[in-house]
Specification:
alpha/beta, 3 domains
Amino acid sequence: MTAGPEYKLEERQTPADLDPQQFRDIGYQLVEDIAMLLESIRKRPLAPGETVSDVRNALRAEESLPRNGTDAGQLLSEVTELLLDHSLLNGHPRYFGYISGSPAPLGILADMLASAVNPNVGAWILSPMASEIESQALRWIAELVGFPEGGGGVLVSGGNVANMLGFWAARTATASWDLRRSGMKSDAGRTMRAYGSKSMHTWIEKAADLSGLGSESVRWVDTDSDGRLNISVLQEQVESDLAAGDLPFLVIGTGGSVSTGAVDPLPALRELCDNFGMWFHVDGAYGAFAAAANEASADLKGLALADSLALDPHKWLYTPLEAGCTLVRDPKALMETFSYHPEYYHFDEEANNYFEHGLQNSRGFRALKVWLVLKHIGREGYVRMMSEDIELARRFYEIAEDHPELEAFTHSLSISTYRFVPRDLAERTGQQQVSGYLDQLNREIQGRMEKGGQAFVSNAVLNDTYVLRMCIVNFRTTLEDVVALADITTDLGRQADGEMRPKELIW
C-alpha cells in the first residue's frame, strides 16, 4: 500500500484560508477597484464589442485546471481586470436594453456581507436573523406596491421562478383532486387550462411544460391595439373550454409587458376570475413596483387584487442580480404547494422555514441586499426615482415623435419603442419592399450600437414591424443620455443606410 501524504491535523493550514491582514489588503484593493468603476462608469464603453473568441482568448478558456493554486491577491486583481474590460455594464447610464436595474452601491456591499455570514436561509434555525430580515423585506415589498397585508411570500432568483411559483400554487389550489399525490391524472381526465395575453412572457411555457400540463394547455389570448389582453375574447375562450369539459384554472395578467410596458386591465381580470372560480396571477416582474409611483394607473394598482404576484427587485428596486419575489394573498398557499416534512427535518413550525415556501432547500441570503436598499432609499426615494425613469422614457418618446428621422411607436411605464427611418423613405413605409428594408436597417443599427459601446437598446416586433426598444430602470440615466440616444441612433442609421440601401430604393 502506497503511503499517502502526511497531514498535520493538529495545526491545520489550508490553501483556502487567508490570514486577516491579507484579507484586509486584497479586500481594500477590491473595494477601491469597484469604487473606481462606479466613479468612471459614464466614461467607459458600455459593452466591449468583442466576439466570443475574443472573450475566450482573454480568459485563456482552453487552459486546464491548475495543479497548484495562485496567489489570492494576484488572482483577484487579474479577474477584476477581466470583468471590467470584457463585460456589458448594465449600470451604465446609457444602458437601455433588457430590464436589468442599475445595482445600488449598498446592494453591492450587501452581497459581500451576506457571503461572509453565509447563512442557509432555508430553515430558521440555520439563519435566524437572515430569515427575519427576509420576512421583513417581503412585508415591505408588499406594502410598497399595495399588496394586502397578511399574505405570504418568498424571494427567488428572478421573474421566471417567481411566476412559476404562482403558477404551481394556482395548480394546487384549484385542482379538484389531490394533485400533489396523484399528479395530473384526474378522475375525470380534465385538461387544466391557463390563460394570458399574446404579449405574455414565455415563462408560462416553461411552467406548463415542467408542471406536466404541456405547453398546449396554455391559451394565448388576443390583445387590443395597446397590447392589453382582450377581456371579451378571454371570456369566450374560457366558456368554450368549459363546454369542452376542460378545467380553466388560471388567468395571468401582465403588469408591464416586456416589449412595450403594456398593463392588462387587472381589476376586470379579477372579476372574471371570481365569476369562473379561477386563480388570478399577475406577472409584475418589470412593472409591479411602479404601482407605487405617482403615475400609476388604476389598472396597475389592480395587482393588489391578485391571488399571487411576481416581481423582481433586481429590476426596479435597483438591487444586484439575483433577486426575484413571489407574493401570495393566502399565507398558506406556498406551503400547501411545496412543503414536505421528511423525518430528518425537525424545525420550529412557528418560524418561517423558507424551504417550505418554494423550490430550494439550500438558499442564499439574497434578502439582505433587498432589505438594505429598501431601508436606505425609503418609499419616497423609490417613488421619486421610478417617476423620473418614467418621465425620461416619455421625454425620449417625444423626442422621437418630433425627430424627422425617427418614428415613435409606443410609450408605457419606462419603455418607449421607435425606429430610424431615412427622410426620403418616410412617405413610403407602407410599401412592402421599404418595410422589409427598414426592418433590416434597424437590426443593423442595433447591432452597431452594441458593438460601438456608446449605448445599448433591445428590440420589439409590433404588428410585424421591427422596432428599437429603450427601457429605463437606471438611477444614473439623465436627460442628456436620452437626447444622446436619439443622436446615436440617427448617426448610426445614416451610416448604415449609406452602406446598405438597395439600388432600387435609391432616388
